């Protein structure tokens, strides 16, 4: 038995080595693709090409008796690495005549990410940090674009401190809230103004497929090239008004972060044995627990700023608290019928998305289980 298994495992090892050689070859080809894209200003991420390629590979896999989901999982992971590799080749400069870009807070995490991407795109980037304000007039005197990338709670204060900018300078902010910073920028600068919200953290390997929300401020024709530059990086753009942005972020960020905070606080106060929870957890609970733990591995000031950024957020969280209490009453009265009716009401609200999310979540759960030790 041992000899049989050893012989088969040796063959598997040889196949794995062949796979490694093929992956290395694929990455070499990706590097060449990156050079071509960089030269012609083509976007890193082309959804039509990716979808067509995956559909073809799934069909071919089925013909070979290979599970289509397997090849898709493998290729998606390989493509993620490919998008990161393409960054190394740089990007085409879409506005070569632009004067220097100054990032206020450019040594912070998000500021550093934009500094790197803009530098890879051929722009001259300068940084204005807290200790540099005595030289702000000099640093900003010939700026072609100024990006404000500072903590939310000081964003408006910093915007109000910006000295007069060149008339054609583009003023941009990256805050997670949009309406008040946008109004502040419009008040201090008479030229082009744009609000950006990158819907990702600074630790992403690539901007490919990542969503960037933008809110028009003034003279959109002046910063159209910047939106196109974001698309060259692979980002997916979504335009929305600043007011609508903040209304949606109340659900996407403030409510979700608060619920996670409260759950984490409850676990800590109950003094649950985390190791036992992990040992006994299903893949879905492990994934949920990982998302809770992820929050507490980051800057508490950031999440306090997001949650407490507006009175509307507080009112929304209070309504959530009220509905939580109403749901508890169903349990206290052991009212299963009312519970089922409420469940079905939510199911109806989700509509077709419920089944779609069921399918999408399966791959996430498989990955959570794969990473289990």
Write the layout of secondary structure elements.
Blueprint: H1 2-40, H2 47-64, H3 68-87, E1 101-104, H4 109-120, E2 125-128, H5 136-140, E3 145-148, H6 152-161, E4 170-173, H7 179-188, E5 193-198, E6 211-218, H8 224-232, E7 236-239, H9 242-270, H10 274-280, H11 283-295, H12 300-307, H13 311-332, H14 336-350, H15 352-370
Helix pairs in contact: 1-3, 2-3, 6-7, 9-11, 9-13, 11-15
Distance between the termini: 27 Å
Helical residue percent band? 55-70%
Query: Which band does the percent of strand residues land in?
Result: 5-15%
Unreliable residue runs = none
The largest sheet, given as strand count, sense and whether it forms a barrel, is: 7 strands, mixed
Mean pLDDT: 93
Corresponding CATH architecture of the largest domain: 3-Layer(aba) Sandwich
Shape: globular
Radius of gyration over alpha carbons? Answer: 25 Å
InterPro entries: 6-PGluconate_DH-like_C_sf, Chor_mut/prephenate_DH_T, Chorismate_II_sf, CM_dom_sf, CM_II_prokaryot, CM_T, NAD(P)-bd_dom_sf, PDH_C
Main location: cytoplasm
Organism: Chania multitudinisentens RB-25
Family: In the C-terminal section; belongs to the prephenate/arogenate dehydrogenase family.
